[in-house]
# Entry
Amino acid sequence: MQIQIVLICFYKVRKAAALHRGFFCIFADCNLKNMTINIITLGCSKNVVDSEVMAAQLHRNGHELYYESAQKSDVVIINTCSFIHDAREESVNEILQQIERKKRRQIKKLYVVGCLVQRNMAELQEALPEVDGFFTFAELPKLLESPDFQLLNTPDRMLSTPRHYAYLKISEGCDHQCSYCSIPLIRDRQISKPIPLLVEEAQRLADQGVKELMLIAQDLTYYGIDRSGKRELADLMDKLAQVNGIQWIRLHYAYPLNFPYEILEVMKQYPQYCRYLDIPFQHVSDDILQSMRRGGSSAYIYDLIARIRETIPGIALRTTLISGYPTETREQHKELVEFVRRNRFERLGVFAYSQEEDTPAYDLGDPIKASEKNKRVNEIMKLQEKISYEINQTRVGTTMKVLIDSEEPDCYIGRTEFDSPDVDNTVFIDKSQSLTVGEFYNVEITDAAEYDLFGNVMD
# Structure
């Protein structure tokens, strides 16, 4: 089992884990007797939302929360990720680090939840007896002392992001059966959150000061099919545009096949919708798309991109690709490089293929050496760096609306509507003027690098 290999490796090698910056300290009453609890979140933005919902449940049970790192705490809860091998390594490494803290009596209790537990409960229990409890999604009510708790169908959140933006998870799970993907094994079939609950959640967030919403799911475009038999994303978008206080809304993780073009019309209708769309294509070779079980074809993908850009001029397209899929030949890699060259994506990420146990592609093996995968990834990213630089240069001399995310000692850092937090470009603004984090400003772009813009606030 891969998880056993990871555990053996990490008992020998301890590497620093990259933690999500949102992490909770909780002063507990009742059963926890005023203990401090840290919730450490690993993985994607969907895990961030899960942690925020768990924190809200703890707060509702009488616990007090704040967002500061504590060197000593009574209890640690780790929300893990298990999407690919590297994510499992990071999760296991964090568990081991917290076990060491427990041995040094810096914490009293350690609990582990989330995707890694969902997938590898038995192996974890056997290999890590120092952990006080492992909880799957279905078992979270036991940890949170709430027998009727439901992770998805609640509007309550305790934000770990800066207060001016938040993720809005509109569904859980995935009905697609992509050959390389472990998400259906972890999160099961798609369950869409009802529109009224999402609107209520969005309004609560707006009332707390949130100005930007990122819609997230394993697949946005199939939203509603499990509830009504039809795609309801456009209807949801229309309702969210009515929420008072939200100024930016952006869409993440739109599945390409059978793309619902009606959502583009909603984007055109409401200025709140950023000209931004995250649509992971993964590959463009017909043979690999078939092996990946993605559906569609190269011709379909090229046509889809053209139609999106024709409908929403100036839209920023973000995509992700997989390099080194087991059957990928050098010619198919070149085809992928040419795909990037021709379409000039504004935002792009590439992952080296990770062989995932129990997925349909697992039996294909992992014949491409890691060094060759990395070489292919680097070739694509080198091209993307050039494309991004050229696109950014066209911004110089223009004035752009920028949302300020943070204040640093020598500058402010913000984003345009074409940029999502943590994954996209940033705008650096000097401190000649006093700005407010969480506010919008018109910024004249004076310079540009490969992945950053530089500018000054207009008087």
Observations:
- Residues 8 and 350 are 28 Å apart (CA to CA).
- Residues 1-23, 25-33 have pLDDT under 50 and may be disordered.
- The radius of gyration is 22 Å.
- The chain has 14 helices and 19 strands.
